[in-house]
Each structure stands twice: as structure tokens, then as C-alpha cells.
Design goal:
The complex is a heterodimer of chains A (about 290) and B (about 325). By secondary structure, chain A is mostly helical. Chain A contains 13 helices and no strands. Chain B is α+β, with helices and mostly antiparallel strands and about 325 residues long. The chains are: A mainly alpha (about 290), B alpha+beta (about 325). At the A-B interface, helix 9 and helix 10 of A face strand 6 and helix 2 of B. Chain B: Pfam families: ABC_tran, TOBE_2.
Chain lengths: ~290, ~325
């Protein structure tokens, strides 16, 4: 069905949606680029004129920016490591035949349905709170002082909260991959003398590689833009200790009311996301091929 | 050495006894085929021997030692699965070498064994390929290669040819038989195809509903089926089974006569009408409807110019007649 005319007809018919999507993407991007080179401060009457690369260089000179970069990468890397490792472990566990398997699986997946700011508030106030939190109660029970999570370990706390939210997603994807594992392959490996650990290392893990890749790619996209969890808990603090790139941009736009600078930050974030994407596709994208 | 002895082996899933209790001896170096209709428990029996299923009761001895509770890896057996169960992310070489790697064999010795297995199975040029890049027959050979490098006490085959097309099945059948003659290792082979059983086996074990119906060499089963089930199962086309008045004449409840032991003769005692004639060139299969006996299959040698609707006479070779009693067992 791939004659010259049918191809032409196909292109003609998808053209409107492609054009719409292109405009949808290109207009905000071009506007952001435009603003990033403008002097545009909401609190200043002087909001006209080009400023060249000043908005960009401000970021590169600011120590907060480099801290935010480090925090962003720590958040993405930390959450990925936790969700993939624990996700594999939980998927292996709930793949076992147990009574009440259906209910168990729904319970495991449940956190994913909680909205990010709500999830963050729950963890902050019910678990990590130094007076009311469950963790504080445990610390006191064992006779030690409660840990001030938001104050002393702000970045770790955010990573913990985001991991809690994303673990179900990772588990779900990894579980489906585990269920497609051929039982004959495992039996063959058993006959071949592979121990449970070797079977995991040489048979199950390679089989799950594609699912792990999917988890890493999808989560990276979402984790680069994490905002709500930081906003409702640490507010990027104390100081700038838990400020990530999106949160830094937010601070420039809404707190400092400097639209031009925020736009420049946005463009930097887009470039960063693309660099990460290229590295990911180079590094693990080959697992997506059959 | 691979002598395998099953002593009252039983397998039950809940209340259902899939295998009520089997006694069987498999001698070292024998090629034994488990054959039976689907659901007869032949695969379960193989998996019990392999150790992939736990025996509910009874005893399995391999090589004179009790192996009933040993894990599969410790039994010294190698298995070839119906789906081949190759590891898709490993090259052919790594697939074949996997059991050696798991056994912790040193690389040089493993390399030698892999090369040797590849040579026997004509896989030398494919060692670097992935299973996905191989044809069905090649995959089958890789699975066999993975089994032979371990030099097991016995090979277990679980319907290994059922995923292959007819032509390839015939040639793989010969390859496996030749392999057995080269290695002289015990082989247990499960199939539902009685042609495979007849052509390959030293000893056939006919299973039905978890019970052994008869054990014997292919020709023993062909010439002296112990009961109606074996009589109907072994042989192609199937034996004609006749009961009623005609059987009574021979002091039996049922009589059986193989299609090749019915002669077409105008003055034969059984007069009938040809329903269907299948001309294969070397043979002609006739479906003949005989009044009072039902439809009989006749195998006539060579080309026979009989057609639908022709009236013919059939004469059974009386010394080839099988007689069965009311309990379905053969009468002496």
C-alpha cells in the first residue's frame, strides 16, 4: 500500500496535526528564547531593550546555579538508583504466588495515585516531622533525638519523598517484564546448574534490561522537572540547599520577578535535558532494540 | 553411567493423581521413548526424573543413588525443552558454555568442549550469533549442544521436534538417533508422535492416563500389543478393531487386524464397498465399509486401481489377528 500517491495522501492527511503540534511547541520555545535576551523585570519600570547574554552569564556566575545543577543531578540519579533497585526487589517478591496477590499489588501501586504535593505533605508531616512524625517516634523509642530531616538532610528528604512516589511506577513496569519471563528458560538454567543468584544475574536481569531502560528514560524526563515536592516541603532551603534547576527558575520568575532571567534559566534547562537525553540514548538505548 | 530406576513414583496435584504410581527401569545407554496421547502424564514423568517437579511419593534412583529429593542440577541430567529455552541475550557460544560456566570449569577446557560440541552439531560457523538469528533446526541443535557439553548421565528430551516443519523433523530425528549412537548415553525422549517413537527407540514406554500400558521394543509393541490401547496407538494407519459377532467367532470380545494384514481378494470372507482411496504411490489406503463390521482401513501395496463405490472382498491374515478379552487385555 505504499504507492507514490498513497504516501502523498498520507502526508497530506497528517499535515494539519503535525503543523498544529509544531506551532504548539515552537511558539513557547521561541518566546522563551526571545525573553531570555531581554531586560524584563516586573518590579522595575525599566523593562525594555536587549541585554545580550547577561541573563545567561548571571546563571553561570552564580554559585546557586551550580548548586542547583548538582542537586538536580543528585535528585535524578538518587531517585533512579533507589527506584530501580528497590523496584526490582519488590517486583521479584510480589511475582511470587501468595494469597491475596491482587490486593497486595494494588497496595504496592497505590502511592502512584497520590498527587505529588499531597504525597510530599504526607511524608513531611506524618513521617519526617520532628515532633509528630513516625520516624521521630521510632528514634525516641530507641532513645535517640529525632532527626531533623528537612533541616539537616533536605536533599535526601526530597529524594526519599520522590522515590516513594515513583517506586510503584518502576515496580509495575518491572513486574510486567518479570511476568513475561519464560519459565522454561529458568528451568533450563536450573538444569544447567545455575543457583538462584546466578539465574537472577544471567537470565532474569538481562531479560529485564529493556524494562529497566524504559523506567530510566521515562523517570528521567519527569524527575528533571520535579517541583511540587520541593515547593511544599523545603521551599528549596535551608538557604539553597535543596534548590534544583526548576526551583531556581521558579525563584527567579516569581520571587525575584525577573522574567528575562527565568527565561534564560528555562533555556539552560532545555539544553541540559537534551544533553542528558543524548547520553541516556547512547548509553542504554540499545536495549530498546529487539 | 546412566541407569535410572523409578520405584512406585507418584505425582499428585491436590487430589488429582496425575501419575498414580510407576515402576520402570531404564538401562544405561538405552534410548527410551515415552509415548502417549496429550495429557497422559509423559511430560510430567520426564519432569519428575529431571527434578523440575517434586515426587509426591516413591523413589527415583539415578546411577544407583537415591535422587528423589536432589535438586535438578545435582542429578547429572541434561534436558532439551520443547521451546528450546535458549537464552536470547547470549551468543550461541555462551549458550552452549553456560552449564560449564555455572560448573566453574576453567576457560580453556570449556572452550575445547564447546568447540567439540559445535563440531558434532555443525554449529561452528554460528558460534557468535544470537538464537534470534538462527533457524528452527539450528536452535534445536544449540539446545542439544548445551545438553551435550556437560557430558550428562542421561539426556531428557521433551517433545523437541514438535516446533519444526515435517521435513526438518525427519532429518533432526536421524541426527538425534546418530548422536545417540555416537555418545552411547542414556536418552529419554518424550513424544506424542508414534512414528518418532517407532523409528528412534530401543524401548518404548506407552503411557495412558498416568499409567504404563506396555513397555517393549518397537516391533514387540507392533506384533504383540498387550492391550487395546497399545493396539490402537501403535501403528499407522491404526489397527482395525472389530467387536460383536465376528469377534465371538474367534473367542474374543474384540479382534484387531492391522490395515497391512488385510488382503484384497474377490472371494474374501468380508465383502464391502470402497469409501475412500488414498493413493500414495507406494501404498494405497482404502476405507472399506463392510456390512456388520463397520469401516475398515486397508493398506494395499503399490498402485491399486480401486475407486470410490467399488465392491471388493477382504481376507484377513488369520495368523496376524489380535484377540482381546472383555478387560481389554490381549488373549494368548
Amino acid at each position: 500500500m505504499s504507492t507514490h500517491s498513497s504516501r502523498f495522501a498520507a502526508r497530506l492527511m497528517v499535515a494539519p496535526s503535525v503543523a498544529l503540534l509544531l506551532i504548539w511547541m515552537i511558539v513557547p520555545l521561541v518566546m522563551t528564547i526571545y525573553y531570555s535576551f531581554r531586560l524584563y523585570r516586573l518590579v522595575s519600570p525599566d523593562r525594555t531593550g536587549w541585554t545580550g547574554f547577561t541573563n545567561y552569564t548571571w546563571f553561570f556566575k552564580s554559585s546557586d546555579f551550580w548548586l542547583a545543577m548538582g542537586n538536580t543531578l543528585a535528585l535524578v540519579g538518587g531517585v533512579l538508583a533507589i527506584t530501580v533497585v528497590l523496584g526490582i526487589a519488590i517486583a521479584l517478591l510480589i511475582d511470587q504466588p501468595v494469597k491475596g496477590q491482587g490486593v497486595l499489588r494494588i497496595l504496592v501501586i497505590a502511592p502512584f495515585f497520590v498527587m505529588p504535593p499531597v504525597a510530599a505533605s504526607i511524608l513531611e508531616n506524618l513521617f519526617m516531622h520532628p515532633q509528630n512524625g513516625l520516624f521521630a517516634a521510632v528514634s525516641i523509642y530507641f532513645g535517640s533525638d529525632p532527626i531533623l530531616y528537612m533541616q539537616d538532610y533536605p536533599m535526601w528528604s526530597v529524594i526519599g519523598i520522590v522515590s516513594w512516589e515513583w517506586l510503584p511506577f518502576a515496580t509495575l513496569i518491572l513486574l510486567t517484564s518479570l511476568q513475561s519471563m519464560s519459565s522454561e528458560q529458568l528451568e533450563a538454567a536450573e538444569m544447567d546448574g545455575a543457583s538462584a543468584l546466578s539465574r537472577f544475574r544471567y537470565i532474569i536481569l538481562p531479560h529485564m534490561m529493556r524494562a529497566i531502560t524504559v523506567v530510566i528514560l521515562i523517570q528521567t524526563i519527569f524527575l528533571l522537572g520535579i517541583f511540587g515536592e520541593i515547593f511544599t516541603t523545603t521551599q528549596g532551603g535551608p538557604g539553597s540547599a535543596s534548590t534544583t534547576l526548576p526551583y531556581l527558575i521558579f525563584k527567579q520568575a516569581i520571587v525575584a520577578k525577573d522574567i528575562g532571567r527565568a527565561a534564560a534559566g528555562g533555556i539552560i534547562a532545555v539544553v541540559l535535558a537534551n544533553i542528558v537525553a543524548i547520553f541516556l540514548m547512547r548509553g542504554i538505548g540499545k536495549h530498546l532494540d529487539a | 553411567m546412566g541407569k535410572i530406576v523409578l520405584n512406585r513414583v507418584n505425582k499428585s496435584f491436590g487430589d488429582v493423581a496425575v501419575i498414580p504410581g510407576i515402576d520402570l527401569e531404564i538401562e544405561n545407554g538405552e534410548f527410551v521413548v515415552f509415548v502417549g496421547p496429550s495429557g497422559c502424564g509423559k511430560s510430567t514423568l520426564l519432569r519428575l526424573i529431571a527434578g523440575l517437579e517434586d515426587t509426591s511419593s516413591g523413589r527415583i534412583e539415578i546411577d544407583g543413588k537415591d535422587a528423589t529429593t536432589l535438586p535438578p542440577a545435582k542429578r547429572g541430567l541434561a534436558m532439551v525443552f520443547q521451546s528450546y529455552a535458549l537464552y536470547p541475550h547470549m551468543s550461541v557460544k555462551k549458550n552452549i558454555g553456560f552449564p560449564l560456566k555455572m560448573a566453574g570449569m576453567d576457560a580453556a577446557e570449556a572452550e575445547k568442549r564447546i568447540a567439540n560440541a559445535a563440531r558434532i552439531l555443525n554449529l561452528t560457523n554460528y558460534l557468535d550469533r544470537r538464537p534470534g538469528q538462527l533457524s528452527g533446526g539450528q536452535r534445536q541443535r544449540v539446545a542439544i549442544g548445551r545438553a551435550i557439553v556437560r557430558e550428562p548421565a542421561a539426556f531428557l528430551f521433551d517433545e523437541p521436534l514438535s516446533n519444526l516443519d515435517a521435513a526438518l523433523r525427519v532429518s533432526m530425528r536421524q541426527e538425534i538417533t546418530e548422536l545417540h549412537q555416537t555418545l552411547k548415553t542414556t536418552m529419554i525422549y518424550v513424544t506424542h508422535d508414534q512414528v518418532e517413537a517407532m523409528t528412534m527407540a530401543d524401548k518404548i514406554v506407552v503411557l495412558n492416563a498416568g499409567n504404563i500400558e506396555q513397555v517393549g521394543s518397537p516391533l514387540e509393541l507392533y506384533h504383540r500389543p498387550a492391550n487395546l490401547f497399545v493396539a490402537g496407538f501403535i501403528g499407522s494407519p491404526k489397527m482395525n478393531l472389530i467387536d460383536g459377532a465376528e469377534a465371538m467367532k474367534h473367542n474374543a470380545t474384540t479382534i484387531g487386524i492391522r490395515p497391512e494384514h488385510l488382503d484384497v481378494r474377490a472371494d474374501g470372507p468380508w465383502q464391502g464397498i470402497v469409501g475412500l482411496a488414498e493413493h500414495l504411490g507406494s501404498d494405497t489406503f482404502l476405507k472399506v465399509t463392510v456390512e456388520g463390521l463397520g469401516t475398515l482401513t486397508v493398506r494395499a501395496t503399490g498402485e491399486v486401481s480401486l475407486r470410490h463405490g467399488d465392491r471388493i472382498g477382504l481376507s484377513p491374515q488369520l495368523e496376524r489377528l489380535h484377540r482381546f478379552g472383555a478387560d481389554g487385555k490381549a488373549l494368548a
